[in-house]
Amino acid sequence: EGFGKELLKHKNKIFPYFANHLLKIKSLKVKNDDVFVVAYPKSGTTWTEEIVWLVENNLDFEKASTVSHTDRVLFLDEKPLDQSEQALSPRVFKTHLTFEYLPDQVETNAKVIYVMRNPKDMLVSFFHFAKWIKGFSFSGKFDAILDLFLQDKIIYGNWCEHVNQFFANSNVLFITFEDLIEEPFETTEKIASYLGKKLSNEQIQSLVEFTSFKQMRKNSSFCFQETDKNSEHNQLDLFFRKGEIGDWVNYFDEQMSSKLENKLKNELNPNILIKY
Ligand code: A3P
């Protein structure tokens, strides 16, 4: 429905990758210093990954500016497994997958950080992303994206189930995009302490600055190869589009909002608080 042919269906869920890779992921050997950053797409995955990578690599800002982000953080859903197997520790993985697709050993062996974003802003971000990324031949209107979300036909399946699953797991550190925006210092400190690292206030402050929207948007280690549908645009400006809470008001009318909120009322764990 407007998306490209590279999509794959498995047990009624739609994924952007190839089945033989997806189903092999479960067998990956997990080490106990591995960290997995999990999120539904467009929820602040990259932002969280960058904070985690820096914490795990002793705030190596030099390397974070010069080595491509896709070589530093292993995108589990896409990266050939032998490359992940051979990567040096500490390994930082990113994934949009839920536990049933993740390596069996993740739950017992690894640290998992889940980042949630309010679904209205997530969908607006998704809409823009789908318009320019190679592999999604999407050219519809915003309504079309909302409908896919409401019918669980958007990639990675039902959003509520995704969030509920990680929220319910007490080993997982659950943070939100809105926390990162509103309380960057506290949230970064929380991430570091979950990872077992004690950082000074100055170190946390420098981490917050390096991973601010303005700085990340300038960091060419984030130039992605997969883009280029729209080569006259700067890839960094497209990916780091707005980085704000509340852009949804420019896309949702009252009816659209109530459809979405109705779904959340029925399907989302009521203990999960969403900030718009
Ligand atoms: P917008 O499209 O709303 O700007 P993901 O990494 O999961 O794909 O999420 C991408 C979204 O996170 C984009 O949202 C992007 O701008 C935002 N983002 C990435 N890094 C950020 C940062 N350092 N500060 C604020 N927002 C950031």
Automatic annotation (TrEMBL):
A GO term, aspect molecular function: sulfotransferase activity
Domain Sulfotransferase: 33-264
Pfam families: Sulfotransfer_1 (PF00685)
UniProtKB keywords: Transferase
Domain of life according to the entry: Eukaryota
Family statement drawn from the similarity comment of this UniProt entry: Belongs to the sulfotransferase 1 family.
Name of the molecule in the record: Sulfotransferase-like protein 4
Organism the protein comes from: Brachionus rotundiformis
